[in-house]
Amino acid sequence: MGDYSTYTDEQIQALKEALSKGIRTVSYGDRSVTYGSMNEMIRLLNYMIKTLEKRVSRVPATFSKGL
């Protein structure tokens, strides 16, 4: 399904809007994608959201010398 770092909020929003309208062709930026089914779109949307959450929830470790 691709590298999660490549998914954007714009892509997720475009997919959500297409799903809400029952449209299988999604356009964002200069690209358009036609999906085979609404189920395929829903699976992709769920995947995109999960991977975006992983990216957002990563917190860098911090260390202290205890001073």
Structural commentary:
The chain is mostly helical and 67 residues long. It has one domain. The protein is 49% helix and 12% strand. It has a two-stranded antiparallel sheet. A hairpin with a 2-residue loop joins strand 1 and strand 2. Helix 1 packs antiparallel against helix 2. The longest helix is centred in the last third of the chain and has 20 residues. The radius of gyration is 16 Å and the shape is elongated.
Provide tags for this entry.
mainly alpha, two-stranded antiparallel sheet, 2 helices, 2 strands, elongated
What's the topology here?
Elements (H helix, E strand, L loop, with lengths): L8 H13 L3 E4 L2 E4 L3 H20 L10
Antiparallel strand pairs: 1-2
Helix pairs in contact: 1-2
